[in-house]
Design brief:
- The structure is a single chain.
- This protein is mainly beta and 441 residues long.
- It has one domain.
- The protein contains three helices and 31 strands.
- The strands form four sheets. The protein has a 25-stranded parallel β-sheet that branches. Strands 18-21 form a two-stranded parallel ribbon. It has a two-stranded parallel ribbon with strand order 24-27.
- The relative contact order is 0.10.
Amino acid sequence: MKTFSYYVVLALLVCAVATACSDSSTGPVFDDPEPSEITTITDETTELSGQMRGTLRAGRTYTMVGDVIIPPGEEIVAEEGVTVIASEDDEEFGFEFTIQGSFISLGTEQNPNLFTVPENLRTEENLFAGLWGGFQATEDAEAIVLKWTRLEYLGGEGAPGTARAGSIRYGIWTLSDQTEVVLEDSWIYGVKDDFYRPVGGKINIVRNVFEYVGEDGGDIINIKGGTVGNVAYNIAIGGATNAFKPSDDGASTIQTDIAVYNNTILNSGFRRAGLNRGANINFENGARGKAFNNLLINNKRGLRVLDDADVANIAYDYNWLYGSHQEIVDEFIPSDSATEEQPNDVMGGVGENDPLFVNYAIDTFSMEDFELGIDQPANMNTVGPWDFRLQSGSPALGAGTTAFEPIAVDFTLTGNRAPTIMPPSADMGAYPADGSGNRQN
């Protein structure tokens, strides 16, 4: 068992009585550390463990040899070109960052940052193994900023004494409607369950790539109550259940309000059995928001608005749906939803309305391929070798709308930590012709 002197036994007892810490849990409670108990990262630092603060220097490689805790008011900043390797845990739980303060990763296009596992473990067999615990925030957490950062092989069960003890961890987990999360130009590869579950937060998730999220369940972004922000210009391929699911579930007095626009979502929803979940964009349980200009290609179901969502305050139109098989076309309007076809949606029969990607064989996969679960063909769930930009003659160019605004969010982050609030493009999907959207792939 992992033990830390700063965990308070009472928190563990509370979790035990409740059987498992719920999404509304505050996680473990910490004693306020003495300054001498916090390790400051220096030029000599190569290993990360325990309570830490400071700067991970550009171009250097660090090894996590234990859970890393960032105390309240402290931060760790990763400069460009940093690699962090989560070494194997003798107890096979995998190490994590526990964030009470802030974690800031500032990779660049030329020198992205990488958070991964030892090279011998970076295999296709380990895509859903959950080899390390990602970023687990407490209610005190101020900010998580990940720019031009690649995260791999996330998830797995939380160790005893940690926030997700006995439960599968999410790649990122936040618990306060005041925590600010900026995820931009990053690449997520291989997550056992949800990649990010915000139980409240101010979020800006733009221009990212998501591959292989969820083994046989889980969403890419599984949003709970008290979360406000924008999800735009992302490419999501091969998600287990939903790509993006706004819900107002929870106790926050701030209503979930999410704008989902100009995303390209493909081949999602098929690793989750049954039709009682969405497959690309799913509004439910009191959430409000908007969804425009999304390319929804060969997903198990279309845009899903449930009747328990704040239906009167959800605006959606100008979404483009394509299906290679009748089973997919039949669920363009999900059969258990309050979704209504909008006047400017594009949807037709099998094989109709090909958006004409630069390089993607859109009808490659049989219905049997989609239904193979974790044995699906690898190139169904990964961006490479495809190019999801639109050909110059694509009918999806200019088929969207710019007559709406992103959600206004009162971020306090500034400078190179600040979010990039993206205006909509009339070109459908994540790659507008003017190059203003996703810069990956």
